[in-house]
């Protein structure tokens, strides 16, 4: 097997109706690489959260596109979700990742769960917020090969 | 394999004498969040009925879905009305545990 990076890129409307298409593509690529059912489910959640973020915050009423790219390395899948929205303040999007663990029901708020899930479910998450040039989230998951023949 | 199936979200309501159960199936994500809210809205406000949500056939949930469950929890809690989330599949339970919402779903048989 060569160690070249292989890329699959899809561009979709930044609409909630297309996030399931990203999940389907992810499923295909990740299962082909040999990820387990559970790992794929984890990645589905993380990638969908990144897409949701672009769908919700990148563009105003006019809409726009989201580019999702899957980079397949020998033992790693790197997924990038990129929009070209007006990445304003950054507080709403790249804000704190939050859990509810130490909160009372009356104090909990919903925002931040998506980011928390991305970070918790992937091996590595980077968020790049360039003002005026959109947001790119890059997530990585390593493939843990269980004693397979080379 | 069942994971590959792109299942459309569906919510079916079953009304009993003093409880309502909503059975969810398919994928509960951002795209169907408005549909889910619409189904739940009239039920959440009725404190005379216990409200159950059954997740047995739910294949997927995102933070939007978790957020809606959380807002239902808060509303029911505020009304002192019973709300139970039942038969949570392992993959979804994992997300509930990770986010910390699980502790609010903990079975509370005497919450009536």
TrEMBL record, chain A:
Entry keyword Kinase: yes
Molecular functions per Gene Ontology: protein serine/threonine kinase activity
Keywords from the named record: Kinase, Serine/threonine-protein kinase, Transferase
Keyword set includes Protein transport: no
The name this protein goes by in its record: Serine-protein kinase RsbW
Domain Histidine kinase/HSP90-like ATPase per the UniProt entry, residue ranges: 13-141
SUPFAM superfamilies listed in its UniProt record: ATPase domain of HSP90 chaperone/DNA topoisomerase II/histidine kinase
NCBIfam families: PRK04069.1
Xref: Gene3D superfamilies: Histidine kinase-like ATPase, C-terminal domain
N-terminal signal peptide: none
TrEMBL record, chain B:
Gene Ontology MF: a single term: anti-sigma factor antagonist activity
Pfam families in the cross-refs: STAS
Transmembrane intervals: none
UniProt family annotation: Belongs to the anti-sigma-factor antagonist family.
Protein name: Anti-sigma factor antagonist
Residues in STAS domain copies: 9-112
